[in-house]
# Entry
Amino acid sequence: MKDMNKGLMKYVLAGILLLIVFPTVYVVLLNEVVPHPGLNLTSQWSDYTFKDWSTDMNAIAEGNVESENGVLSVNIESNCAAGAIVAAQRKRDLPNGLSPQSFLKVLVKTSSINVAARVVIWTNATYSKEVLVKTYNDVEWHTEIVDLSFFDVPADIYMIELSAMQVYVSDSSDWVSYSQLSFEEMEI
Amino acid sequence: MEHSPSLIKTFTKKISGIIPSTLAAKRTSIFKWLLIGIIIRFLVMPLFSHTDFITTLWISFTFASKNQLIHSVDPPAIFFVLGSFYKIMAPLFPQAFLSFLTSNTAFTPPTLLQNFSLLQPGINSVLLIGKIPYLLLDVASAFIILHLFNDKNKAFFAFKLWLLNPISIFVSYVFGQTDIFAVFFIILALYFLRKKKFASSVLSLSFAGVFKVIGLALIPLVAVYFWKTHHLTSVAKKTMKLGWLALLSLLPLLVFPVALSLLPQYYESVNIALPTGTMFNGFFGNTFYSMGRATQPFFSGITTFLLDFSISFQTQFLLPDFIYFVPFVYTIVFLAAVIKNKLSFEKTASFFTVFLLAYYAFSLFLPQWFLWIQPLLILMVAWDRKTFQKLYFLTIPLFFIYICMWDGGLTSNLLAPIVPSAISWAGPITLMIDAGLPAYELISIFRTMLSAVCVFTALLIIRHKIWPKQQQGTHEEPV
# Structure
């Protein structure tokens, strides 16, 4: 019996050493030795106040744009057809000389699934690129980080547009809110 | 305290039961090799990862924390199992990492979440803990392999081959793919098949099918084996038993999807501004997109992987009439099993191996799928080392050249958890193209050689295992 206990003890100790002690020490060592930068973004340009933004909309849309306490609200009237777009636009003091590894960062929330948040970057007066068109099924803030190199956005920006696009016709008015707009650069 | 000796006895007996009695004398060697196998795995686990592993982790944790399922092309059962495990293990994971993974931050393109996750502090712990379920199934598979042989030396050889198999280590611990779940159940099915426990075998294969569709492909072959070996008095009784097997094979396949369909679906918002051709999954409004197309994810997965990746040809251009090579080969293998007078465990396993070898030879296969055949090839090598060992070892370097086709994704970028800048390193294809070399053509030469080795091995299996030489020339089994 004593031998059996001794034998079992040997296996249990070996098991603890192999399955718990060795991997724990190994991983702690790795976490210490290997530097992990995480998501290291540094701001190149930001707009947290949303002053001086103008309003624009397409022919089938009705709505307005409001700015208060660092939140830009883009509102669409009820019963607008799908595809109706109301936009807030900023043309002045925009980022110039963005690095090739730039990210657009913005907080977004929407009133319902009936409306999409839409971010457009204009590279000149006639050419624009949609970089974000999304719907959400809640009314929480969502942080959106968009890799601009994926969309070939040039270093100089002509205009930025934060808009609301009707996806489904709705009896009630819909809105999209934006906050903490910035252009960031990543460092590894 | 009085009960402790009997408890110890029971425990020791149970531990001993894991190893076949014929191998009792080799117990120390078995544990020694197991130790080596586990240490290799532990060393590799926290060092490497592909972004797919982070996707699996993300879906599983979302399921564990929100009880909502993110739909993807992978069968949902895997996320249910892993999510349940991760829920228990959650206190061991670095909490900052989990907050990052399940936060309300979304990235465009969506793969940035996975890339940035690999750069997060604590990633090495995440990789180690996250891959523990794979290790458990992997080690369990090694012990089941010991039970697949009568000959103790063959069993021990196969055990060592499994534990040191670089493909198995790469797929589960470097690439971080979940195919070991299906492979474990396939090995378990082989164990039951050897014992002629057909119901348990079919049930195991069905469980394998819940994780990867390939598990289902062996069921018809098992059914044929059952029909040819079961000595029931009447055809009616035999048919009833076969019906029971069919029912068993459907049970997990029906239960899992029904149970999971009752779960609320996670609203993964997709950015439809992404360029056409981008493989995004998620919702825009009420429409679900899978791999960039508005479709049902599971079926789009099956048709893509089973048919679109297969060699095929169109008979003419008036109608979309296609001949797909994968179902074509499977039908031939199945018919061959049907006309064979006598089937055995060895022959049934051989038929399945031939099908899989033909599949790899003539289809684009994702590297993790090469794990499916590993236990079967190990069986072949252990059964007949002289014939199959060299060919088996030849598949290994050819496989590792084949994965270069995925460029940095399956080579240099896998180092990101220990060298963060490796996330943007160029892969072999890019480097070769930059050097002015015809990269894809060069790798395709080796891929072609892999196909040739697969076909040659399949032919040898037919020659040596299915229709051995002594039976040729007789009229016992006319073909």
